[in-house]
């Protein structure tokens, strides 16, 4: 049995790996997204994107690191979106309260 070393891996081989990962991600995420919270969706999407990018740049180890970094990034984006949404709702309630005070 012959095992390829990293130096023997061709660009077309990397494209095959990336294509396989992309296919799996495009099939799994839409189905899994039906029952996932927004936080889970954003974290999962970040992990998937990070895994693909890391896999292209650094093989399996890169994919694992990319998935971890992507998941963290997705989670941070989710928290920022929630914060923005809460701030917008608070502003809307303040404006509504002010209108009610003016009507009295």
Polypeptide structure, described:
- With 104 residues, this protein is an all-alpha fold.
- It contains 2 helices and no strands.
- It has helices at residues 11-32, 38-103.
- Helix 1 packs across helix 2.
- The longest helix has 66 residues, at 38-103.
- It is elongated, with a radius of gyration of 22 Å.
- The model has no long low-confidence stretch (mean pLDDT 80).
List the keywords.
elongated, 2 helices, 104 residues, mainly alpha, 85% helix
Short description:
The protein is mainly alpha-helical and about 100 residues long.
Write the layout of secondary structure elements.
Elements (H helix, E strand, L loop, with lengths): L10 H22 L5 H66 L1
Helix pairs in contact: 1-2
State the major sheet: none
Evaluate the radius of gyration: 22 Å
**Shape by Cα distribution:** elongated
Assembly of the depicted chains: single chain
Report the mean per-residue pLDDT as an integer. 80
Count of runs of 4 or more consecutive helical residues: 2
Structural class category: mainly alpha
Through-space gap between termini: 86 Å
Helix content: over 70%
> What is the beta-strand fraction?
under 5%
Which regions have little confidence, pLDDT < 50, spanning 5+ residues? Answer: none
Strands, total number? 0
- Topology as a string of helices (H) and strands (E): HH
In total, how many domains does the architecture comprise?
1
């Amino acid at each position: 049995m012959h095992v390829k070393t990293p130096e023997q891996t061709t660009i077309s081989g990397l494209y095959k790996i990336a294509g396989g990962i992309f296919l799996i991600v495009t099939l799994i995420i839409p189905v899994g997204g039906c029952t996932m919270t927004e936080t889970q969706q954003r974290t999962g999407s970040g992990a998937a994107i990070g895994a693909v990018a890391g896999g292209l740049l650094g093989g399996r180890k890169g994919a694992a690191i990319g998935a971890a970094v992507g998941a963290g990034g997705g989670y941070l984006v989710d928290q920022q979106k929630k914060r923005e949404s809460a701030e917008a709702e608070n502003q809307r309630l303040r404006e509504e309260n002010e209108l009610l005070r003016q009507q009295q």
